[in-house]
Amino acid sequence: MMYKRLSLLVITLLLFSCSNDPNTMINHLNGYWEIDEVTLSDGTKKDYNFNDTIDYIEVSDSLSGFRRKLKPNLFGTFETSRSEENFSIKIDDDSLNIYYTTPYSKWKETILNANETQLIILNNTNKDVYIYKRYESLDLDFDTK
């Protein structure tokens, strides 16, 4: 039953993403993203109500880039370990794919959808689906006018 639901979810997401031109999705990748929800390959969903880290993604004109984990702080800036995951982007069979290479591993992710507010990624190794939302900094203005 769980595999049917997961298969249905992945097929729906793939069909939905087919209407998106992969070239236009590239423009939406840059920026700060936080995980909103993950659907594991067994169909289990995990909601993320609070994230202590966010992802910063930067893509260059040469379709290469990096992803860096950042930790927001109370001053509106970020702390980082400075470690990055470098990647290259390719369009294969009308799908937008990110190919990562680190000293320890290589893997591929498929962008199912990317727009101004949402990023949906399928990890091709473990078949987990990650749904990101644009990061919005906390408004800690305690002005009590």
TrEMBL record:
Signal peptide as annotated in the record: 1-22
Keyword annotations from UniProtKB, A to Z: Signal
Protein name: Lipocalin-like domain-containing protein
